[in-house]
Amino acid sequence: MTVNRTLLAVAGAVAGLFLSACSVHPGVAAVVGEDNITDSHVDEVATALCSAQSGAGASGQQDLASRAARQGALDVLINAELSRQYGAAKGAQANQGQVASALAANQKNIAALPAEHRAVFQQTLRDYAEGQLMLIDLGRRALTAQGKQGISDQQAVSEGTRLRNQWAAKHLRISVDPRYGEFSKGALLAKSGSLSVAQSARAADGDSPDPSAGWVASLPAAQKCSS
């Protein structure tokens, strides 16, 4: 598994997470252990994601509803924070040379963003890359201790993620504001971003994590990312 990917690709491949019951506070999107991820930070990252997608300029690419961008942003932020806390608890450190390589590989994408979005995009990518590298390190150590050889990064990160989730189940509490979705069986399940129950066909379409092109197109410009 390579960490030299854009954050858009990263957001679509977030590893499993553990959720146990606790409450979030106003202005807080998620609680990971003793650390909070605020609504404002999620908004900053989601805006950067929207800008990155717009900058990609893929012909015919469907608009991304802003709620989906916020859910994706929170997914990445929780995953990075959980990996960071696990890595710190186990004494793992990300190889900063590899982190620098990941950022360098994405420099063109970062530079294409509006200036006001570059810093948050780069920091989010850095945090995620560091978390993945720590999982690879810890996973490889564990598999090596089991006598396995020729361990790929994919195998290492899978094992590291499994060990991280076991550790989280014992040592952390994670909760998410239900407006962003819900955690079930270690995954963030996208919801409508509303606490109400969809009644009409249009509302049900909007409640889907993958709404139709017509539904997205009907959103006001402020509620979607343009391609």
Task: Note down, in words, how this protein is organized.
There is one protein chain. This protein is mainly alpha-helical and 227 residues long. It has one domain (7-218): Triger factor/SurA peptide-binding fold. Helix content is 55%, strand content 10%. The chain is built from 9 helices and 7 strands. The strands form 3 sheets. It has a 3-stranded antiparallel β-sheet. Strands 3-7 form a two-stranded antiparallel ribbon. Helix 2 (39-56) packs across helix 3, helix 2 (39-56) packs across helix 6 (115-145) and helix 4 packs across helix 6 (115-145). The chain is globular.
CATH class: Mainly Alpha
* Low-pLDDT segments: 4-24, 57-63, 195-223
Beta-strand percentage?
5-15%
Distance between the termini: 28 Å
**What level of helicity do the residues show?**
55-70%
Number of domains: 1
- Rounded to the nearest angstrom, the radius of gyration is 18 Å
Along the chain, the helix and strand elements come as HEEHEHHHHHEEEHHE
Number of strands: 7
Return the CATH topology: Triger factor/SurA peptide-binding fold
Mean pLDDT: 74
CATH second-level architecture: Orthogonal Bundle
